[in-house]
Amino acid sequence: MQQFSNQEMAELKSRVDRIHDLLARRGDEGAAMLRPSAADRRGDERAQPPLLDQLSFSIEARRIRRSHFGGADMSGAVWDMMLDLMLARANARVLGASDLATGAGVPLSSGLRMIAALEQHGLVERAIDERDRRRTLVRLTDAGAERMASYFERIGGATRGGRPLAA
Question: Which residues of 116-138 are buried (b: 16+ CB within 10 A; e: fewer)?
């Protein structure tokens, strides 16, 4: 299990405290999400409320993704594009650059820059659509698909046993 530095722990505590404050302002039903249930308190002294588990897992998944893909920025719209491309590959479909940009919620010009960066990292490849030469098709490379699959295998291992963060 990855150890967190004191600075990272302080950052996590600060984030959790802010979330707790926000939920407390919303009323008791929001704050209850952060409290362990009676069953959790009886069963495991260290049991975390479900929201804290989810927050911890999300932060850890982001860290794993950052290290797993090396220098490639895999956040926000770029990550959305990679997910769309992985799904398209699994369904034997191809997507156009404009489809990816629209799906990621970014202008086409920004989407094209993101696709170019992914291409430089060897994760995607572009080709002209033979039926409509104005259209650019984008596919995951074999290396990109393998990288995505291995990321999800690693994340899946992090959640086995009902406890996140075992990666």
Answer: eebeebebbbeeeeeeeeeebbb
Q: Which residues of 50-64 are buried (b: 16+ CB within 10 A; e: fewer)?
A: ebbbebbbebbbeeb
Long-range contacts from 158-164, C-beta under 8 angstroms, 24+ separation: 158/57, 158/60, 158/61, 158/64, 159/57, 163/53, 164/53, 164/54, 164/56, 164/57, 164/60
3-state SS assignment for residue 95: strand
pTM higher than 0.70 for the full model? no
Tell me: the pLDDT tens digits for 105-124? 999 999 999 999 999 999 99
pLDDT in tens, 56-83: 888 889 889 988 988 788 999 999 999 9
Contact 49, 33 (CB under 8 A): yes
Domains of the chain from N-terminus onward: 6-70 (no CATH), 76-148 (1.10.10.10)
**For residues 23 and 32, what is the distance between their CA atoms, to the nearest angstrom?**
9
